[in-house]
Amino acid sequence: MLQRVIVAIDFSSASAAALAISRHHCPGATRRLLHVMKPADVARGSAAGAMAGAGSSPLHSKDMRQSAEEQAYARLKEWARDDEECAVAVGSAPEEISRLAEEWDGELIVMGTRGRSQLASMLSGSATEWLVRHASLPVMVVHDVPLSDAMREHLPPGFEQHD
Question: Percent of the chain at pLDDT above 90?
Fold first, then answer.
């Protein structure tokens, strides 16, 4: 039986389904919800703050990153149950998911996928594809599919699926 499961969360309906399925199929496991922010997104937030007159010093950038991480962590906590851990990282999503899963001694990575077209994946890359090819842990990929009633009970707050 799996003991340590890391669930990659990007706050999409596919990641909500991945979380629900991991809760349903690995009920006794310790689960860590992980959100990885892109450095460009953190930088955009910092640039927006500078444009608003907040200044552009390195200290301000550090504050903006910390603020972005705190906001992401708070959002993860809304999705998490009391017995689930949360973590936030900044970097390349697939590389950070793989690295942090190994550091945490995870046994399985669970993640949702949006099922983009081959062209979209080729142009922008696919975190799912990278993880499947390179992660040292097994990866369970969950499409945004209809869930059974038993699995719907495990969706995070605010998510409802209809047949």
Answer: 62
